[in-house]
Amino acid sequence: MRKVQTESGDRYQCPLSVLWSPHSFQGTRGRHKDRKSQIMEVTTSRKPAPALRTFSKDIAFSLGGRYSPRGKAGLGDVIGSGRDVLIVSKSGRDFLIEVYHDGEPVYDFLFSSFSVTDREDSILKGLKTGNQIVYDNLNQYLNVQKTEDSPDMISFDGVQRRRYVLRLKIR
Question: Closest Cα partner for 83 from 96, 66, 108, 58?
């Protein structure tokens, strides 16, 4: 950064390379130090309904990840990014969440419905579940907490005081 004298007073100029960095973890405040806290990419099916898009943005917020619309990108383009990827889609009457790590599918689960309520208490980051199998499979990839809630439920907090409760479809 250098000081430049102008008619209106002193100003500072900064080279563009200081403002922009090609590093994928710029501005993550150290979240890349371990795999579980690595930025997760959350995306949807190619043409998601508005409710599914909002749901995906809120789950990305809860997991500390980032949402990006899939658009015309193929599955290989999405999972080949080198990041952990969570894909939210509709599968018939049910909803499907798939988790990918290093380009490989590691876990997926179906849920038949979800409800959205106003959160009255403080915000909690990550997913909460009472299902031991879901917890064991997601724990090494996502911020997930085991609770004493119903084993067929997963919950998380989104933006604007929204709390989501998902009803799992046990297979």
Answer: 66
N-term to C-term CA, the chain: 59
Region at 46 (left for phi over 0; alpha for psi -120 to 50; beta for the rest): alpha
Angle at 96 between CA 92 and CA 101, to 5 degrees: 145
The model's pTM: 0.74
Which domains occur in the chain, in start order?
Answer: 32-168 (3.40.50.10480)
Say what the pLDDT of residue 5 is. 64
CB 86 within 8 A of CB 97: yes
Report pLDDT digits (tens) over 141-156: 999 999 998 899 999 9
Give pLDDT tens digits for 74-94. Answer: 888 888 777 789 999 988 899
Segment holding 115, helix H or strand E:
strand 104-118
DSSP state, residue 124: -
Transcribe 73-101 into DSSP letters.
--HHHHHTTSSEEEEEEEETTEEEEEEEE
Q: How far apart are CA 76 and CA 57, in angstroms?
A: 21
CA atoms within 13 A on the CB side of 48: 22
